């Protein structure tokens, strides 16, 4: 079995992985990475798909592990014009992908297969078993990829959340059964591999929100990632329980809500007000806003709120804004700019790292070292290929994997061609995979990329 990681190694984002067996190829995830400073106007970085031309006829499709930008963000930019292989995804992930394609009128040009969490299917010589996980988005799955040469477990992003609020906890029994049957190699999330962390849960964040709404009299805004549907639901349920009206702000927030509602993931969660402007005129203790923009994005809802945009209730002294997310490295300055405007207005800011009566206002969606060790005990792979992290994360993960008893843990680089056989795991060489810098239009909207030569 051949593996080519394109992205996610030594960089955050752009997680693409190619698997090859018996002349056929499969792509797992197609995300974007965000540009460093000094790339003015560049909105996203992706592998240039033209390098796939030599294997295009044998590339059978793309399977998606979950709907985060660093795993699906390249799809609406590259499909169908630059690359148009069939896509397999869960109902939620496919819903999110489809909305984007639909906005560009490209939906019918892409072949889409929906699979349910936990189901199995076949793509050419690859037998796929999907495994239910927990993360910070609905329906994350690991993929057990079975071939004549052995089984690889591709975890995608995960954690062990005992009470994820939406969906069921991780299917540890299935992971153990895969381990019993024998796993040749595991490609696994390294985000928090360097630290031991307590097991955390979305249920704790819900408890923190309940406490927040119950004890504060002013207006409250909670800022989180739009795709963290469990957290949006927690804000809605606890806000309404405290007698508040809840509005969502941000197009991506409304997109996620629409997909989640259509799939029944928000059953029992009260409807939101149609517009944040409808919060105006209510008593301060009746206002709850759930919004995007926690990374300091200038056009997102939180920045508008901070600027005093008339479409939002006016926030000032006595009001609270909660940044219920981790600030992605590189965004600190942008976040500080927005936050200082709010502080200047007298708004109290609670950060994701803050605790409220000992309860977390944010929990990570990735496994700490202790959770990784438990996964290695369940799956018992012969070889470990740490992915999804910078070199520091990958090295810490490799050390942990060796301690957990793997025969070899390989810290590889992007575009390296790795061969896995029962005899060993070895880097054969490097693939020439250039990167593409994609731009947004003048409104900040994503523009599909149209290459001179389409890959069909
Ligand atoms: Zn990720
Ligand atoms: Zn993720």
Tags for this entry?
456 residues; alpha/beta; Metallo-beta-lactamase, Chain A; 2 domains; binds zinc ion
How would you explain this protein's 3D organization?
With 456 residues, this protein is an alpha/beta fold. It has two domains: 2-196 and 365-439, Metallo-beta-lactamase, Chain A (4-Layer Sandwich); 202-360, Rossmann fold (3-Layer(aba) Sandwich), CATH 3.40.50.10710. The chain is 25% helix and 25% strand. The protein is built from eleven helices and 24 strands. Strands 7-6-5-3-2-1-22-23 form an eight-stranded mixed β-sheet. Strands 8-9-10-11-12-20-21 form a seven-stranded mixed β-sheet. A five-stranded parallel β-sheet has the order 14-15-13-16-17, with helices on both faces. Helix 4 crosses helix 10, helix 5 runs parallel beside helix 6 and helix 8 (301-307) packs parallel to helix 9. The longest helix is centred in the middle third of the chain and has 14 residues, at 202-215. It is globular, with a radius of gyration of 22 Å. Bound molecules: zinc ion (2 copies). One zinc ion (ZN) binds at residues 15, 68, 70-71, 157, 388.
In short:
The protein is of the alpha/beta class and 456 residues long.
Q: How many DSSP helices?
A: 11
Low-confidence stretches: none
CATH architecture label name of the largest domain: 4-Layer Sandwich
Overall 3D form: globular
The end-to-end span amounts to: 25 Å
CATH domain class name of the largest domain: Alpha Beta
Averaged pLDDT: 95
| Alpha-beta content class | alpha/beta
The helix fraction, in percent, is 25-40%
Chemical compounds bound to the protein: zinc ion
Q: For the largest sheet, list the strands in their spatial order.
A: 7-6-5-3-2-1-22-23
Query: How many strands in all?
Result: 24
Largest sheet at a glance?
8 strands, mixed
Write down the domain tally. 2
Rg of Cα set: 22 Å
In terms of DSSP E residues, the strand content is 15-25%
- In CATH, the topology of the largest domain is named Metallo-beta-lactamase, Chain A
